[in-house]
Write a structure and sequence with these properties.
Elements (H helix, E strand, L loop, with lengths): L5 H4 L3 H6 L10 E7 L18 H9 L1 E7 L5 H10 L3 H4 L18 H6 L4 E6 L23 E3 L11 E4 L11 E5 L6 H15 L5 E7 L6 E4 H4 L22 H7 L10 H31 L6 E7 L4 E2 L5 E2 L5 H4 E7 L8 E3 L3 E2 L3 H8 L14 H5 L9 E6 L4 E6 L3 E7 L4 E7 L17 H11 L2
Parallel strand pairs: 1-7, 1-9, 2-13, 2-14, 3-4, 3-7, 6-8
Antiparallel strand pairs: 2-12, 5-6, 9-12, 10-11, 15-16, 16-17, 17-18
Helix pairs in contact: 7-10
Length: 464
């Protein structure tokens, strides 16, 4: 159904002015930060024993950490088109990294566009909509000019960065390989430039309402970070993930084909897995430092008390679980994302919630926090009630999907289970995992007669 009226999407600028923070009478600003390919398991505030992420952790201490937040598509472009429009992938019709959502929804009002239409300065620096990494870093391709007052593309050398490193999976190209570079110069990186630009925008816009979106490309491969971040993680302290014997034997053959060359540890032995984890952790800490530079400026300008901060990734990332690396699966590690929201004056400060939530819920949440009326057609549900009482329930299901040349996959996450259905023109396959007894999803119950009632229930929930 096409977007029909201006009234569906716009509110008056006065509506924004009415939104106040901490009784200041000023409009509520937004700092919206997206880190690319970030697993929540690789953050200190989510419990990792080694990873140093003090600045992400500081947002969690000031806000609410969402422990069961899920993306709607386990791939960059479809996920970002979804959460930035507030619509599910079957509505945006973006199911791969190629198309632009405007081809299908030319009149959609994106989250930043809503703010732009209401008198805010809507600023992009870095990867917000899809960006090919490393190939289109530093360009504005796919970044949707209609969404922004300022559409900025920080520059970075990516796989051309100076330094030492290697490709741990040489059969894969730069955008998919587990390759890393220890660089002597952080200033060559897009994330460093993004932080510099974000700081300049904060200083220039301190006296007017802003929606500042900062898209960090790390820890997307290539895993580039300065030497000192690698030094934080001695190889001897890193423990690769060890799956039980026969872990993947009960995963449908169709699912394994859909996962393609990300299985079997991508050919990496245990020593290479340690190197890969070290580089990933270093990239996370490098990204975190750039975030910290932006947060310190926000505080120095005394803008924190009227700024909503959202920190998230676009999807999860496997770090060797089930022998899988990277994204493009429908298991917990690929579908679950970090999501932290800090909003001035909310009662849930420093707490976590186990409510089932989705990235499609972010758009209506930010709009409500800032007193704006979002489009009527949004397919998410505001999370604001959880910012005051994280113990409340939110929704019964979270849905994630994935389309590959081999198969289409659909997953539904409920309080205690994950169900996955794969299908092609000639074959189907199912997975069912009981998270009460099997939180790492080692035992597929789809063929277990005792699980038949739950299987039937989840088939219905998934629309299978």
């Amino acid at each position: 159904m096409p977007f029909s009226t201006r009234r569906e999407f716009l509110t008056t600028a006065a509506g924004a002015v009415c939104a106040s923070a901490a009784n200041t009478g000023r409009p509520m600003n937004v700092l919206y930060v997206v880190s690319d390919d970030l697993s929540p398991t690789a953050l200190g505030c989510y419990g990792h024993p080694l990873v140093q992420s003090p600045n992400v952790d500081s947002i969690a201490r000031a806000g609410v950490r969402f422990d069961r937040a899920y993306c709607q598509f386990a791939l960059c472009a479809p996920s970002r088109a979804s959460f930035l429009t507030g619509l599910r992938p079957d509505t945006t019709r973006v199911r791969s990294n190629g198309p632009d959502f405007r081809e299908f929804l030319p009149d959609a009002v994106t989250l930043p566009q809503l703010f732009k239409n209401n008198g805010y300065r809507a600023i992009r620096e870095g990867k917000m909509f899809h960006m090919g990494v490393p190939t289109t870093v530093g360009t504005d391709r796919w970044q949707d000019a209609a969404s922004w007052s300022h559409n900025g593309s920080p520059q970075g050398k990516e796989d051309r960065s100076r330094g030492e490193g290697r490709n741990l999976t040489p059969k894969h190209d730069a955008g998919r390989a587990m390759n890393y570079i220890r660089t002597p110069d952080p200033s060559e990186q897009a994330d460093f430039d993004a932080a510099n630009r974000a700081i300049a925008h904060l200083e220039a816009n301190r006296n007017q309402p802003f929606f500042l979106a900062v898209g960090f490309v790390r820890p997307h491969v290539p895993l580039v970070a300065p030497d000192r971040f690698f030094d934080l993680y001695p190889v001897a302290k890193i423990r690769p993930f060890v799956s039980p014997a026969g872990d993947t034997d009960d995963i449908p053959a169709l699912a394994l084909r859909a996962l393609g060359n990300t299985t079997g540890h991508m050919g990496m032995d245990e020593d290479k897995q340690r190197e890969a984890l070290r580089a990933y952790f270093a990239s996370v800490s490098f990204m975190d430092e750039q975030l910290g530079r932006v947060l310190r400026t926000l505080d120095a300008l005394k803008l924190r008390d009227n700024t909503v901060i959202v920190f998230q990734s676009d999807h999860g990332w496997h770090l060797g679980e089930h022998g899988i690396w990277q994204k493009r699966s429908l298991m917990e590690e690929s579908a679950r994302v970090p999501l932290i929201i800090s909003a001035p004056g909310r009662k849930g400060r420093g707490r976590r919630t186990r409510a089932i939530t989705e990235l499609v819920d972010v758009y209506p949440t930010v709009a409500e926090l800032c007193g704006l009326t979002p489009p009527a057609r949004l397919e998410g549900k505001s999370l604001v009630h959880l910012l005051d009482n994280p113990a409340r329930e939110h929704k019964a299901t979270a849905h994630t999907q994935l389309d590959t040349p081999q198969a289409q996959g659909r997953a539904v996450r409920t309080d205690h289970f994950r169900y996955i259905r794969w299908g092609s023109a000639s074959e189907t396959g199912e997975e069912l995992y009981d998270h009460r007894r099997d939180p790492r999803e080692f035992r597929n119950l789809a063929a277990d007669p005792a699980a038949a009632p739950e299987l039937a229930r989840h088939r219905a929930l998934a629309g299978a």
